[in-house]
Design a protein that fits this description.
- With 315 residues, the chain is an alpha/beta fold.
- Strand 9 and strand 10 form a beta hairpin.
- It has one domain: Spore Coat Polysaccharide Biosynthesis Protein SpsA, Chain A.
- The strands form two sheets. Strands 3-2-1-4-8-5-9-10 form an eight-stranded mixed beta sheet, sandwiched between helices. It has a two-stranded antiparallel ribbon with strand order 6-7.
Length: 315
């Protein structure tokens, strides 16, 4: 569990040579695991085993409202999103965003899907800007738990497709997976839930984003930890109310750089590292899908009761 002390904005923590070597070794090991064990896990045979195990699993139940929000830059992968949506309670909603020039293709993929809505967006900020567009417009505030997905390919990575399929599978690849995530949101202190293997807290993974994350944390009045604390790939379950500080920034689409294949340093890379900071600053917890606490609120952040009181008083 991360409980890191805050550092002054603008002062990026230094990484020792030994820590750098360890982080790189862990990165290589994770890549190998994805390409070997991960490939088997998302294969056809493993999928049949999960379906067989789901035969006797109870349908997911949730006392609140839930939705799946997915950005479909690659509309041909919407079928994978729909497979995840099939594990949701019957009353759940599906919201799909897609670039304007790919709306027709996305509409064909969603034809006949009940409770689905398609929203056209500008091709900026990858999956982050479209999600913030919905968040800023208060389109998500009626929900208690939202699964954020996107049709990530990462063509520059050898394991890009496998990583997407692993994330989809671990977050909502079966009734059991979805039920396990939703039960965590019955606890009002839960803000974010994600796959533990996508959680990143190595200082190396600030990469070139530290200064922009520092600026976001200052604007949100959220403590900035010494190490990053985020779900790589920006796919996770979230309570929209836990992102009120991020929504208050009103980051519009035109604040994001025009798409040019950026691999690092763009605003969407910084926001990816700010979701957990926003949630914990208001007293929410970040947990893995198995319930393990990954990131706790800083000691000087308000608890949920104080945060709610401050909001109601207009503070």
């Amino acid at each position: 569990m991360s409980t890191q002390p805050p550092v002054p904005p603008g002062t990026q923590p230094q990484v020792t040579g030994l820590a750098r070597q360890r982080a790189r070794a862990a990165h290589v090991a994770a890549k190998l695991a994805t390409l070997t064990v991960g490939a088997v896990y998302v294969g056809a045979l493993a999928g049949k085993v999960r379906s067989w195990r789901d035969r006797h699993a109870a349908l997911p139940e949730f006392s609140g409202r839930t939705a799946l929000v997915a950005h479909a830059y690659y509309p041909e992968l919407i079928g994978e999103v729909l497979a995840c949506f099939a594990t949701f309670p019957a009353t759940a909603d599906l919201i799909v965003t897609a670039p304007f020039d790919r709306l027709d293709e996305a509409a064909l993929e969603l034809q006949g899907v009940e409770r689905a809505r398609l929203v056209g967006v500008e091709n900026r900020g990858r999956d982050i800007a479209p999600f913030l567009t919905l968040l800023n417009a208060r389109e998500l505030e009626a929900y208690d738990a939202v699964l954020k997905l996107h049709t990530k390919r990462s063509p520059h990575l050898l394991d890009g497709d496998i990583r997407r399929r692993l994330l989809f599978t671990q977050l909502a690849g079966s009734w059991r997976k979805t039920a396990a995530a939703l039960v965590l949101f019955e606890n009002q202190a839960t803000g974010l839930v994600g796959w533990h293997s996508s959680w990143r807290d190595s200082p190396l993974l600030w990469m070139t984003n530290y200064q922009r994350v520092a600026e976001l944390s200052t604007a949100m009045a959220a403590p900035l930890p010494t190490h990053p604390a985020f779900f790589e790939g920006s796919m996770f379950w979230v309570r929209p109310a836990a992102l009120d500080r991020l929504r208050a920034l009103a980051l519009s689409v035109d604040r994001f750089e025009a798409e040019s294949g950026q691999l690092d340093g763009a605003l969407h890379h910084a926001v990816e590292r700010a979701f957990a900071l926003a949630a914990t600053a208001d007293g929410y917890d970040v947990r893995s899908t198995n319930g393990r606490l990954l990131y706790a609120r800083p000691a000087d952040s308000p608890g949920l009761a104080q945060a709610a009181k401050a909001k109601s008083s207009g503070a």
